[in-house]
Amino acid sequence: MKKFFYIINIIFILALFIALPYGCSKSETNTNIQSETIEESITIFDKIDNIEEDFIADKKALLNEILTENKYENAAVITNEGATEIVSTDIYLKGGTVLTGDKEINDVKGIYLFNNFYSITAAYYDTKKALDNGEKVMVVLLDGFSLKQYEEASEKNCVPFLSKYYKHEALSVYTPVTNAGYAAIITGKTPDINGVHDRSFRDMNVETIFAYSLKSNKKPLLLEGDVKILNIETEPVLHVDENKDGDTDDEMYENSKIMVSEDYDLIFLHFHGIDDRGHSYGPMADETMEYIKKVDGYIETLSSMWHGTIILTADHGMHEDVEGGNHGLCRMSDMVVPYFLKD
User: Fold this and answer.
1) Is residue 175 exposed (0-12), middle (13-18) or buried (19+ Cβ within 10 Å)?
2) What mean pLDDT is predicted for residues 109-118?
3) Are 141 and 182 in contact (CB under 8 A)?
4) Does residue 93 contact residue 75 with C-beta atoms inside 8 Å?
């Protein structure tokens, strides 16, 4: 009897070992299929919200037929490489590919629908135009400030100054993180051209507005937080959190009040606190809204001291998650930001 049970146990163990590889193989296959599915999915959105999230066209499908109530004639196709290609909405989708009739756009992450197209890259060209006209320019980067946040802050009267100069929405770039958005603002180029795709990139393939200002015999100044983010032709003035309140925005603000009276043609300010609070509390949290109101006050004061053009926008937006807020996805909340101009 013992011999019988011994043989049975041996057979069971052997069967278990034989079955395990097949079980693992099945699991890995499912994981790979899921991964490929996620990579091929596309988010279709406009300046209001996501219209289709994680959309997958298993077979060739006309975009205008997917959109049951299409009110847009144009679309920006956003690729994984950071390109933004403007096309009509009369296009076909299949997997992660957009078919325009004469060419294919591969590895698509999102489709942004619009009637009037605006991009954060316009900050470069608006700055260049003002400098060429002999005007002084202040550019303010409001890190992590989404269009949805601005609209919420406006309803709660947290942006009494900025709301006077709101011009329109603006599309950020993929991937919507600081390095990529920052580079797009100061180069006027998308990541596929300027070479900055995510947080791991610091060097650019093209010159920035700082190089242009220097070549034009203009005097630029870059005021940053406590870390140098990108390698730029002008070295940033970094700031230390002297009062230990967890921010460098207040120290940079105090320094900028001094610098605006100096002989600078271009001053670039990078406020980080909105993004920090969005991550910690959520983009629509009371703490975040209160900080947006504080920054609005900073900008109002600086505006009263600055005799020139002021351009304000964000590098990216932010969506809510279980821990507060995050960004980096091709979706409306991360990709659409406000654009302000005071001239």
Assistant:
1) buried
2) 97
3) yes
4) no
Q: Work out whether the CA dihedral 116, 122, 125, 128 comes out positive or negative.
A: positive
CA nearest to 128, candidates 72, 182, 186, 58:
186
Q: Phi, psi (5° rounding) for residue 327?
A: -155, 170
The pTM assigned to this predicted structure is: 0.88
What is the CATH number assigned to the segment(s) 122-342? 3.40.720.10
Backbone angles phi, psi at 231, to 5 degrees: -85, 105
C-beta separation of 298 from 158 below 8 A: no
Domain ranges of the chain: 42-114, 122-342
pLDDT in tens, 58-81: 899 999 999 988 889 999 999 999
In this predicted model, what pLDDT tens digit does every residue of 244-265 receive, in sequence order?
999 999 999 999 999 999 999 9
- The pairing of strands 266-271 and 220-223 is parallel
What's the pLDDT at 27?
A: 28
Q: What would the two tokens of residue 86 be?
A: 């403007």
CB contact at 8 A, 85 and 19:
no
Share the mean pLDDT of the chain.
90
Find tokens 């630029």 and name the residue: 220
